[in-house]
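Write out the bound-state structure for FE2/S2 (inorganic) cluster.
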Amino acid sequence: MSVKEKSDHGMCICDEESTEQKLARIAEVIERYKNLEGSLIQVLHMSQNIFGFLPMEVQKFIAEKMNKPLSEVSGVVTFYSFFSTVPPGKHTIRVCMGTACYVRGGKKIVERLEEILDIRVGETTKDRKFTFEVARCVGACGLAPVMTIDDVVYKQVNPDKLELILAKY
Ligand code: FES
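---
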Protein backbone atom coordinates (compact mmCIF):
# COMPACT_ATOMS: atom_id res chain seq x y z
CA MET A 1 0.00 0.00 0.00
CA SER A 2 1.34 3.37 -0.87
CA VAL A 3 0.56 5.83 1.89
CA LYS A 4 0.84 9.42 0.79
CA GLU A 5 -0.83 11.22 3.60
CA LYS A 6 -2.42 10.63 6.96
CA SER A 7 -5.39 12.40 8.49
CA ASP A 8 -5.54 13.72 12.06
CA HIS A 9 -6.64 10.28 13.21
CA GLY A 10 -3.69 8.59 11.54
CA MET A 11 -5.97 7.11 8.89
CA CYS A 12 -4.65 6.81 5.36
CA ILE A 13 -6.52 9.16 3.07
CA CYS A 14 -4.77 8.26 -0.17
CA ASP A 15 -6.81 7.20 -3.18
CA GLU A 16 -4.59 4.41 -4.31
CA GLU A 17 -6.02 1.59 -2.22
CA SER A 18 -8.30 -1.01 -3.75
CA THR A 19 -11.79 -1.57 -2.36
CA GLU A 20 -10.56 -4.83 -0.77
CA GLN A 21 -7.75 -3.01 1.01
CA LYS A 22 -10.15 -0.38 2.30
CA LEU A 23 -12.58 -3.05 3.53
CA ALA A 24 -9.70 -4.86 5.25
CA ARG A 25 -8.88 -1.68 7.12
CA ILE A 26 -12.54 -1.22 8.05
CA ALA A 27 -12.51 -4.81 9.38
CA GLU A 28 -9.52 -3.89 11.58
CA VAL A 29 -11.39 -0.85 12.91
CA ILE A 30 -14.43 -3.04 13.68
CA GLU A 31 -12.26 -5.55 15.55
CA ARG A 32 -10.87 -2.74 17.67
CA TYR A 33 -14.19 -1.06 18.48
CA LYS A 34 -16.97 -3.63 18.21
CA ASN A 35 -17.18 -4.47 21.91
CA LEU A 36 -17.27 -0.87 23.07
CA GLU A 37 -20.49 0.90 24.03
CA GLY A 38 -21.88 3.02 21.17
CA SER A 39 -19.22 1.74 18.80
CA LEU A 40 -21.38 1.81 15.66
CA ILE A 41 -21.15 5.59 15.18
CA GLN A 42 -17.41 5.50 15.80
CA VAL A 43 -16.97 2.66 13.30
CA LEU A 44 -19.10 4.49 10.73
CA HIS A 45 -17.04 7.67 11.16
CA MET A 46 -13.77 5.86 10.68
CA SER A 47 -15.16 3.86 7.78
CA GLN A 48 -16.24 7.07 6.06
CA ASN A 49 -12.71 8.43 6.57
CA ILE A 50 -11.29 5.30 4.95
CA PHE A 51 -13.82 4.90 2.14
CA GLY A 52 -14.76 8.54 1.57
CA PHE A 53 -18.48 7.75 1.87
CA LEU A 54 -20.74 4.91 3.02
CA PRO A 55 -22.31 3.09 0.06
CA MET A 56 -24.62 0.10 0.65
CA GLU A 57 -21.74 -2.31 0.03
CA VAL A 58 -19.84 -0.82 2.99
CA GLN A 59 -22.94 -0.64 5.19
CA LYS A 60 -23.60 -4.37 4.54
CA PHE A 61 -19.98 -5.20 5.33
CA ILE A 62 -20.15 -3.30 8.64
CA ALA A 63 -23.51 -4.88 9.57
CA GLU A 64 -22.14 -8.39 8.95
CA LYS A 65 -18.89 -7.85 10.81
CA MET A 66 -20.63 -6.21 13.77
CA ASN A 67 -23.46 -8.77 13.85
CA LYS A 68 -26.05 -6.04 13.55
CA PRO A 69 -29.11 -5.83 11.29
CA LEU A 70 -28.46 -3.83 8.13
CA SER A 71 -31.54 -1.75 8.99
CA GLU A 72 -29.81 -0.52 12.17
CA VAL A 73 -26.63 0.47 10.32
CA SER A 74 -28.57 2.16 7.50
CA GLY A 75 -30.81 3.88 10.03
CA VAL A 76 -27.82 5.54 11.71
CA VAL A 77 -26.25 6.50 8.35
CA THR A 78 -29.49 8.11 7.20
CA PHE A 79 -30.18 9.87 10.50
CA TYR A 80 -26.91 11.81 10.80
CA SER A 81 -26.22 14.39 8.11
CA PHE A 82 -22.44 13.97 8.46
CA PHE A 83 -22.68 10.51 6.92
CA SER A 84 -22.94 10.36 3.16
CA THR A 85 -23.95 7.48 0.91
CA VAL A 86 -22.64 9.17 -2.24
CA PRO A 87 -19.03 10.05 -3.12
CA PRO A 88 -18.04 13.55 -1.99
CA GLY A 89 -17.41 16.29 -4.55
CA LYS A 90 -13.91 17.27 -5.59
CA HIS A 91 -14.09 20.36 -3.34
CA THR A 92 -15.94 20.81 -0.05
CA ILE A 93 -17.51 24.19 0.71
CA ARG A 94 -18.34 24.81 4.37
CA VAL A 95 -20.17 27.95 5.44
CA CYS A 96 -19.69 28.85 9.09
CA MET A 97 -22.99 28.99 10.92
CA GLY A 98 -21.51 29.88 14.31
CA THR A 99 -23.25 32.78 16.07
CA ALA A 100 -21.02 35.60 14.77
CA CYS A 101 -21.18 34.40 11.18
CA TYR A 102 -24.89 33.69 11.37
CA VAL A 103 -25.79 37.20 12.57
CA ARG A 104 -23.41 38.82 10.09
CA GLY A 105 -24.83 37.21 6.99
CA GLY A 106 -23.96 33.52 7.07
CA LYS A 107 -27.56 32.59 6.28
CA LYS A 108 -27.52 34.77 3.14
CA ILE A 109 -24.29 33.06 2.04
CA VAL A 110 -25.95 29.67 2.42
CA GLU A 111 -29.04 30.79 0.48
CA ARG A 112 -26.98 32.28 -2.35
CA LEU A 113 -24.77 29.19 -2.60
CA GLU A 114 -27.84 26.97 -2.75
CA GLU A 115 -29.03 29.08 -5.69
CA ILE A 116 -25.69 29.11 -7.52
CA LEU A 117 -24.91 25.44 -6.98
CA ASP A 118 -28.53 24.36 -7.36
CA ILE A 119 -28.26 22.00 -4.38
CA ARG A 120 -29.16 22.09 -0.69
CA VAL A 121 -26.78 21.91 2.27
CA GLY A 122 -25.46 18.36 2.62
CA GLU A 123 -25.61 17.67 -1.12
CA THR A 124 -23.07 17.37 -3.93
CA THR A 125 -23.40 19.05 -7.33
CA LYS A 126 -24.32 16.78 -10.27
CA ASP A 127 -20.87 17.26 -11.82
CA ARG A 128 -19.37 16.15 -8.46
CA LYS A 129 -17.31 19.32 -8.28
CA PHE A 130 -18.63 20.69 -4.97
CA THR A 131 -20.04 19.23 -1.78
CA PHE A 132 -21.84 21.87 0.27
CA GLU A 133 -21.90 21.76 4.07
CA VAL A 134 -22.29 24.09 7.02
CA ALA A 135 -19.82 24.19 9.89
CA ARG A 136 -19.56 25.38 13.45
CA CYS A 137 -17.32 28.34 14.37
CA VAL A 138 -14.01 28.07 12.54
CA GLY A 139 -12.30 30.56 14.85
CA ALA A 140 -12.29 33.66 12.65
CA CYS A 141 -15.35 35.36 14.18
CA GLY A 142 -13.81 38.86 13.89
CA LEU A 143 -13.93 38.49 10.12
CA ALA A 144 -17.42 37.00 9.84
CA PRO A 145 -19.07 35.76 7.75
CA VAL A 146 -16.58 33.06 6.94
CA MET A 147 -16.58 30.07 4.64
CA THR A 148 -13.98 27.53 3.65
CA ILE A 149 -13.35 25.67 0.43
CA ASP A 150 -11.16 22.67 1.23
CA ASP A 151 -8.34 24.19 3.33
CA VAL A 152 -8.76 27.80 2.17
CA VAL A 153 -10.59 30.21 4.49
CA TYR A 154 -12.61 33.04 2.90
CA LYS A 155 -13.33 35.90 5.30
CA GLN A 156 -15.96 38.67 5.22
CA VAL A 157 -17.66 36.85 2.40
CA ASN A 158 -20.13 38.86 0.37
CA PRO A 159 -22.94 36.93 -1.36
CA ASP A 160 -22.28 38.94 -4.56
CA LYS A 161 -18.68 37.70 -4.68
CA LEU A 162 -19.49 34.01 -4.41
CA GLU A 163 -19.58 33.33 -8.13
CA LEU A 164 -16.13 34.87 -8.51
CA ILE A 165 -14.78 32.72 -5.68
CA LEU A 166 -16.28 29.54 -7.10
CA ALA A 167 -14.92 30.32 -10.57
CA LYS A 168 -11.41 29.74 -9.20
CA TYR A 169 -12.29 26.07 -8.86
S1 FES B 1 -18.78 32.11 14.22
FE1 FES B 1 -17.95 31.89 12.25
S2 FES B 1 -15.84 31.99 12.58
FE2 FES B 1 -16.67 32.04 14.55
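---
The helical segments are 19-33, 39-51, 56-65, 70-79, 99-117, 162-167.
Residues 99-117 form the longest helix (19 residues).
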